[in-house]
TrEMBL record:
<feature type="binding site">
    <location>
        <position position="184"/>
    </location>
    <ligand>
        <name>a divalent metal cation</name>
    </ligand>
</feature>
<dbReference type="InterPro" id="IPR036237">
    <property type="entry name" value="Xyl_isomerase-like_sf"/>
</dbReference>
<feature type="domain" description="VOC">
    <location>
        <begin position="452"/>
        <end position="597"/>
    </location>
</feature>
<dbReference type="GO" id="GO:0051213">
    <property type="term" value="F:dioxygenase activity"/>
</dbReference>
<keyword id="KW-0223">Dioxygenase</keyword>
<keyword id="KW-0560">Oxidoreductase</keyword>
<dbReference type="InterPro" id="IPR050312">
    <property type="entry name" value="IolE/XylAMocC-like"/>
</dbReference>
<dbReference type="Pfam" id="PF14696">
    <property type="entry name" value="Glyoxalase_5"/>
</dbReference>
<comment type="function">
    <text>Catalyzes the conversion of 3-dehydroshikimate to protocatechuate (3,4-dihydroxybenzoate), a common intermediate of quinate and shikimate degradation pathways.</text>
</comment>
<comment type="pathway">
    <text>Aromatic compound metabolism; 3,4-dihydroxybenzoate biosynthesis.</text>
</comment>
<dbReference type="InterPro" id="IPR043700">
    <property type="entry name" value="DSD"/>
</dbReference>
<feature type="binding site">
    <location>
        <position position="606"/>
    </location>
    <ligand>
        <name>Mg(2+)</name>
    </ligand>
</feature>
<feature type="binding site">
    <location>
        <position position="455"/>
    </location>
    <ligand>
        <name>Mg(2+)</name>
    </ligand>
</feature>
<dbReference type="InterPro" id="IPR013022">
    <property type="entry name" value="Xyl_isomerase-like_TIM-brl"/>
</dbReference>
<feature type="binding site">
    <location>
        <position position="210"/>
    </location>
    <ligand>
        <name>a divalent metal cation</name>
    </ligand>
</feature>
<dbReference type="GO" id="GO:0046279">
    <property type="term" value="P:3,4-dihydroxybenzoate biosynthetic process"/>
</dbReference>
<dbReference type="InterPro" id="IPR029068">
    <property type="entry name" value="Glyas_Bleomycin-R_OHBP_Dase"/>
</dbReference>
Length: 645
């Protein structure tokens, strides 16, 4: 696996006059104000929302911040937040106006003309729409004298005003040209408000749009907002409908991200800003495609080549060393694969069975510092590999340099967030990548009946799980499924698959829910596997065992529990127990699967049989598999015999 600098892209995002301006709140990014501004500019944002705390902590006077923004090509689109302004007694109101005048001074120096005022959350806030409207009206009069506008935002946990329709009612009553709304998608969508009502608000009253996605969580909305917001496309909210409504209503301001997220707050700001920009590019494409009524020039900043159809996994490449290479090759032979090709110019073997293909590459250093094997690349068959690559580049995916011989196929590749290379290819093209392999003289046999690659499962680095979801979703056009969580022997794991609509390409992403240390159980981190499909797993498992495949033995308790929970055909249950085949089912069908032992430090293979349209990945059985892998590892390292099954 190559280590790639994912913060830069050779072509960079193009700033154009087309479409909405893009913005990002400084609160989205980690570091000091200086770091945040540099990162936002490098990722191609047009503007920023300056979060007050970032300014207060900065040694730069506001004028210097403005100069820095100008030098970086950034506008200061919003100053925020101004809290607890309204619904107060007359003496507090006087003090609040004084406080506001001070902030207007700051904004003047910052060159920012819009102040965000949040609805009050104080226990003392008066439940009085007329009072709030009157106080906001007064504030708007003062602001207008300074050439400033007030954008009123209903926080989802506001004491009295906590829905966007209520905030609109207040702004309507206050009736001042310098007073309008800030609509924050989190506050609107977390409360399950119907965004259709946005269409009833005059466009010139929509002063500012803040965008954030979030996972569906059943929890206190303030905690949800402060810790779990995501960039658009990473969560469960329909941001394109939200933005589409605002555009249709006549909103002409920027699309600005405001994402409070525990992980992003600790991430490299340059990289997080690229992730953020990718989310906006993809969102604008979705708005353009999903809401054709929206004036075209509002919907896009960049022309994105549409994602071509994907027709399957072309191959998966494993980086191996001498020891793990032999182990993996033996396992592949046991699984019925044939070593059919040898690369013309590199020490890379092609192993094949049906349309399942694995490359063993001994050139690349292993990704982990333990000796072992790791997935270095996954290759997908694309209807138009060139267009796939252009799209990836437009979405700021780091393009990988390729070294290739004179008459070898050119494979476009980009780096996924975990460093895995993603290749776009056409296996059926005469001049395609298979032509780079010289035949070993062995043609693929029927093997044990494995037909294709079903999925590739990659444990993601803790900090890049949500980034990875958006990467595969936007760059490859895959659809994220709902995340699931399970309790594994070494901690909770979240998993989320991304697939194309035809389910030809499936990538199962997983992550430990807490950064996983390995203090007491070394070598349990970041497993990866490739799953191959079969139409008859019991016959396949027997054949694999006969060939000496290192199949993983599953505990008898597992089958006793299956027997207790389900009324499976006793013969099938006995065969599953004999062959260590696991079982799952969903509303569409059934799933039978078995695993190999871990080869090297983190790789293993899975064989799966999908019956009747089962769509999952047998995630419910993952803890059983992990415990079995652990048991083997201990037995191997101590030389202790394995207990009876
Ligand atoms: O969590 C908050 O306090 C907060 C502040 C400003 C915002 O725009 C917002 O949406 C939330
Ligand atoms: Mg907000």
């Amino acid at each position: 696996m190559s280590t790639v600098d994912t913060t830069t892209s050779p072509s960079g995002p193009s700033r154009s006059n087309l479409g909405a301006r893009t913005g990002i709140a400084t609160v989205c990014l980690s570091g000091t104000l200086e770091d945040k501004l540099a990162a936002a500019a490098a990722a191609g944002f047009d503007g920023v929302e300056i979060f007050e705390n970032d300014l207060i902590a900065s040694p730069w006077p506001p004028r210097q911040v403005r100069q820095r923004c100008t030098d970086l090509g950034l506008s200061v689109d919003l100053y925020q937040p101004f809290r607890e302004f309204d619904a107060v007694s007359p003496d507090v109101f006087t003090a609040n106006l004084r406080r506001a005048e001070h902030k207007f001074d700051v904004m003047e120096q910052l060159g920012s003309d819009t102040l965000l005022v949040c609805s009050s959350v104080s226990q003392d806030a008066a439940h009085d729409d007329d009072l709030i409207a009157e106080q906001l009206h007064t504030l708007a009069c003062r602001a207008a004298e300074r050439g400033i506008r007030i954008a009123y935002e209903a926080l989802a946990w506001g004491r009295h005003v906590n829905t966007y329709d209520h905030s609109w009612e207040i702004v309507r009553r206050a009736d001042h040209p310098a007073l309008g709304l800030c609509l924050d998608s989190f506050h609107v969508l977390s409360r399950a408000s119907d965004p259709a009502g946005i269409g009833d608000i005059p466009g010139d009253k929509l002063f500012f749009l803040q965008l954030a996605d979030a996972p569906r969580l059943d929890m206190d909305v303030l905690q949800w907002s402060r810790h779990h917001r995501l960039f658009p496309g990473q969560g469960a909210f329909d941001l394109s409908a939200f933005v589409g409504r605002a555009f249709a209503a006549g909103y002409t301001g920027p699309l600005s991200l405001e994402v409070f997220n525990d992980v992003f707050r600790q991430s490299d700001p340059g990289r997080a800003a690229v992730d953020a920009m990718r989310s906006l590019l993809f969102l604008q494409e979705q708005v353009e495609v999903g809401h054709p009524a929206v004036p075209q020039d509002r919907a896009r900043v960049t022309e994105l080549p549409p994602a071509p159809d994907l027709t399957g996994h072309a191959f998966t490449e494993l980086a191996v060393d001498d020891a793990s290479g032999k182990q993996v090759a033996n396992a592949l032979a046991g699984l019925g694969f044939t070593h059919t090709g040898q690369h013309r110019s590199k020490p890379v073997q092609l192993w094949q069975q049906g349309s399942a293909r694995v490359l063993l590459n001994t050139t690349e250093p292993s990704a982990s510092n333990e000796s072992g094997a790791a997935v270095s690349a996954l290759a997908v068959d694309s209807a138009d590999p060139t267009r796939s690559a252009r799209r990836a580049e437009a979405l700021l995916a780091p393009v990988l340099p390729r070294t290739r011989g004179a008459d070898e196929a050119s494979l476009a590749a980009v780096a996924a967030p975990d460093g895995t290379s993603v290749f776009f290819c056409r296996t059926d093209d005469d001049a395609g990548w298979p032509a780079d392999f010289l035949s070993t003289g062995r043609s693929p046999e029927a093997g044990v009946g494995l037909t294709r690659t079903d999925h590739v499962a990659l444990t993601q680095p803790f900090d890049h799980f949500d980034e990875a979801t958006l990467f595969y979703r936007s760059v490859l056009g895959l659809h994220p499924e709902n995340p699931t969580e399970f309790a594994a022997p070494f901690g909770l794991v979240r998993s989320r698959a991304v697939t194309d609509p035809a389910r030809e390409v499936r990538i199962a992403l997983s992550v430990a829910l807490l950064r996983r240390g390995e203090e007491w159980a070394p070598g349990v981190s970041a497993p990866q596997h490739i799953a191959f499909a079969t139409d008859d797993i019991i016959a396949g498992a027997r054949a694999m065992r006969a060939r000496g495949a290192p199949l993983l033995e599953i505990s008898g308790n597992y089958y006793d529990d299956l027997d207790a929970r389900l009324t499976l055909d006793p013969e099938l249950l006995a065969a599953m127990r004999e062959c260590s085949v696991l079982y799952d089912h969903d509303e569409h069908g059934e799933f039978l699967h078995c695993y190999t032992e871990v080869l090297g430090s983190r790789i293993f293979f899975e064989v799966v049989q999908r019956i009747g349209g089962y769509t999952g990945y047998g995630t419910t059985n993952a803890p059983v598999r992990m415990a079995a892998h652990r048991r083997l590892r201990v037995a191997r390292s101590t030389g202790a015999p394995l207990n009876e099954r």
